[in-house]
Amino acid sequence: MPKLKTRKCAAKRLKQTGTGKFRHFKAGARHLMSSKNAKRRRRLRQDGAVSTAESRRIKVALPYGL
User: Fold this and answer.
1) What sign does the dihedral 6-14-12-58 (CA atoms) show?
2) Residue numbers of the domain that contains 25
3) Is residue 13 part of a domain?
4) Distance CA 66, CA 11 (A)
């Protein structure tokens, strides 16, 4: 059986935790930060968790993990 290809778009956007869950970067943290309050900017710095419904699709896109 041939090797499976990794979806590079998913590999660049996601990180895998030690327990095997996936984390993603939050949207809206690239520019126009001066108009956002400090609490919102702090929350945008943290990684977001991927839902279980999305994690099934991610496991197909990343067959060998990260």
Assistant:
1) positive
2) 8-61
3) yes
4) 7
Here the tokens at position 35 are 């108009």
Number of domains the chain contains: 1
Output the tens digit of pLDDT for each of the chain's 66 residues: 899 999 999 999 999 999 999 999 999 999 999 999 999 999 999 999 999 999 999 999 999 988
CA 48 to chain centre: 7
The model carries a pTM of 0.78
The answer to whether residue 1 is domain-embedded is no
Cross-strand bridge partners of residue 15: 23
Q: What is the DSSP string of 3-40?
A: PPPP-HHHHHHEEE-TTS-EEEPPTT-SS-GGGS-HHH
